Amino acid sequence: MDNQRFFLYISLLMVSYLLWSSWSRENAPVAEATPTEQTASQAAKNIDNDVPQSVSTTTNPAKIDPTATNKTETQNEYVVVETDVFTLHINTRGADIHHAELKTYPVDNEHKDEPLVLLENESKTYIAQSGLLHDRVANIDVGPLAPNHHNIYSAENKKYVLSDGRDELIVPFTWRSDNNVLVTKTYRFKRNKFLIEVDYTINNQSQNAWTGRQYRQLRHSYVSGERSLLRLPTYTGGAYYDNKYEKISFDDMRENPLEKEITGGWAAMLQHYFFSAWLAEEFETNYYYTNVVKNAVGSDYIIGLRSEPLSIAPGASAQFKSRLYTGPKLQKRIEQIQPGLELTTDYGIFTPLCKPLFWILDFIHQYVGNWGWSIILVTLLIKLAFYRLSAASYKSMARMRKVQPKMVSLRERYGDDKQKLNTAMWDLYKKEKINPLGGCLPILIQMPVFLSLYWVLIESVEMRHAPFMLWVQDLSSKDPFFILPLLMGISMFIQFKLNPRPPDPMQEKIFMIMPVFMSVFMAFFPAGLVLYWFVNNLLSIAQQWYITRKFAND
Questions:
Q1: H/E run at residue 245
Q2: Best CA proximity match to 325, nearest among 198, 419, 222, 446
């Protein structure tokens, strides 16, 4: 097998892999995707299902109504919170975040003044919920003793703003039971932070001891990841960390619900570039769970964690602490928040290559300030690292070109006798010290780097909407004018012309078509990826031309 045919096979294999992966995900069975607007009566029917079960202190607990204090309270009211990175709407029902805009991340380059909405409860549901559960006691309705996410809180103000010169904003919500258990749910926001502290302070002024637990959960109606025939869909679904990163899809939540005790860790809902996660403390043991609940027209998917019990004597107070991250997958920042959190940037099987590749890109970016130039410099470094290997390959190809007339003569001599022809050609290779597979090595090296860079570009939020220069203003999206794919195709054509001419006329025609095919194929891939391939081709052309010329003069 000559190296040109090998190149063709590798290219087709790469294209086939990307197309098959995309097709398989496009056609995989998925849960229903539906809007989730509900009336108050419809929502009330699902209350028993979307509140985690408390723990019974007896073998025969009484039936509990978790919304006993809210039967007449159906109106949702919102408190607006403004920080330098957030615009939040917190529902007084549960004091939960129902809307979160990321002020520093626009929807796209065409709507730079429109912030991206991560959490919402309108056309779809994606919200962060939390609440308290009182451990069950026989013959006592404990619903009114602890507020879950259906109970109504009160707030002093309708709007809270992180003013200039302040680094922290505190937003308290209060709830009081009929027997004088006062609960204060407090949000703490820090400047330039997507991490939110959420505390529950329970002041037990009742006549009895209070024993309860904290639960935290993320609720999401199913929406598929970004899909395209020529672009692999991104993952949308749940994940958790138990000393290792585990994904749990919406289908998994339906078929194999999560039920696990974990010390530390976190539970998250992921989507392209962004995620939300409830974070447990390092030595805190929680019961991790998933749930699927019906809404008016479909299903919502829940992942969460429930704490160990906390007992509070009459007249005493105590606190549950928690943290919620909702924002971008900024790897360097989130890995400092919680172990394993950086794994939410999921590179899949290419992680061993993607991690160091991103590190190098990020390191260079700190100095050049442009991700496009970072890609170019990384491409140059890769070429330098494998210069000797590539040089050996190009020398082998130069020898192949030199003995081309002898190979043609052998084909004419032996005709259709494949066995004699192969024997004669191998003898020629040995005599001329030619490795017929020598030209394959640069290709074998390039393919994993190519695929790794692909995942870095589509998974790393740092690359999102990253401009390069001139017409390329988003390296994570396709070239709007298809100039880079065209240039890449031209560079491929020049490369083929530098290679030995295929003896088979049909094979030669196929190779003439390949640059056109690859230009069309790559036209829909991220511009940063096409930039890498184009620059790599230019460097390969320069190296091959130099070595071929030098070899010819020797």
A1: strand 245-248
A2: 198
Backbone angles phi, psi at 154, to 5 degrees: -115, 150
In this prediction, residue 29 has a pLDDT band, given cuts at 50, 70 and 90, of very low
CA angle, residues 195, 201, 207, in degrees to nearest 5: 165
Residue 247: CA atoms inside 13 Å, Cβ hemisphere, count? 15
Helix (H, G, I), strand (E, B) or coil at 522: helix
Q: What is the CATH number of domain 31-346?
A: 2.70.98.90
Round to the nearest angstrom and report the end-to-end CA distance of the chain. Answer: 27
Q: Minimum mean pLDDT among 42-51, 127-136, 494-503: which range?
A: 42-51
Each domain of the chain, given as residue ranges in start order, spans: 3-23+354-553, 31-346
C-alpha–C-alpha distance, residues 498 and 541, integer Å: 8
- Cα separations (Å) of 244 from 50, 266, 343, 344? 27, 11, 9, 11
Q: Is residue 172 classed as helix, strand or coil in its secondary structure?
A: strand
Q: What is the pLDDT of residue 21?
A: 47
Tokens linked to 378: 């990384």
Structure-token match 């949308």, residue found: 236
H or E element: which one contains 102? strand 96-106
What stretches of 226-368 adopt beta strand conformation (E)?
Answer: 237-241, 245-248, 259-263, 266-270, 274-279, 285-294, 299-307, 310-312, 317-328
Q: Which residue has the higher pLDDT, 255 or 38?
A: 255
> Does residue 410 surpass a pLDDT of 70?
no
Diameter over CA atoms, the chain: 106
pLDDT confidence tier of residue 406, bands split at 50, 70 and 90? low
Contacts of 70 by beta carbon, 8 Å cutoff, 6+ apart: 93, 150, 151, 152
Write the pLDDT tens digit of every residue in 71-96.
334 567 899 999 999 999 999 999 99
Q: Are 454 and 526 in contact (CB under 8 A)?
A: yes
Q: Tell me if 173 sits within 8 A of 154, measured CB to CB.
A: yes
Neighbours of 126 (CB within 10 A): 24
DSSP 436: T
Of all helices (H) and strands (E), which one includes residue 353? helix 351-368
Give me the pLDDT at residue 468, please.
85
Residue 187 confidence (pLDDT) above 70: yes
The letter for the amino acid at 255 is E
Separation of alpha carbons 62 and 40, rounded Å: 26
C-alpha–C-alpha distance, residues 498 and 532, integer Å:
20
| Mean per-residue pLDDT of the chain | 78
Strands 78-82 and 159-161, bridge-based pairing: parallel
Exposure on the CB side of residue 72, measured as CA atoms within 13 A = 0
Q: How far apart are CA 370 and CA 381, in angstroms?
A: 17
95 close to 173: Cβ distance less than 8 angstroms: yes
192 three-state secondary structure: coil
Three-class DSSP category at 368: helix
